[in-house]
Specification:
alpha+beta, 3 helices, 41% helix
Length: 101
């Protein structure tokens, strides 16, 4: 057995109106896009057009949303590195696939 590491990104966003939203994403871009979408929904803003949402713009939007009521609103995007146990057969199959190319 051996370990590989994968990245995951957790988004937590909430306010005093109910349960916080917690979601896990496979890429940072997905997490920032979801933060942008959730802040826009909570602010009753129209959804963002099909433009790329980056960390900077999502952070500015979420920080402005939180600044309107800093005592009850919160958000956080956290990166995680998760060790995944891989059986020996998975390593060998990957090596065979790499040689076949």
């Amino acid at each position: 057995m051996s370990y590989d590491v994968v990245s995951a990104y957790t988004l937590v966003i909430g306010d005093d109106s109910g349960e916080p939203v917690v979601s896990v994403h496979g890429s940072a871009a997905e997490a920032w896009r979801e933060l942008d979408r959730e802040v826009r929904r909570r602010s009753r803003m129209r959804p963002r057009p099909r433009r790329v949402v980056d960390e900077e713009s999502a952070t500015r939007l979420a920080s402005a949303w939180r600044a309107a009521d800093p005592d009850t609103r919160f958000w956080n995007v956290t990166a995680h590195r998760l060790p995944i146990l891989l059986p020996v057969i998975a390593r060998e199959a990957g090596a065979v696939a790499a040689r076949a190319r």
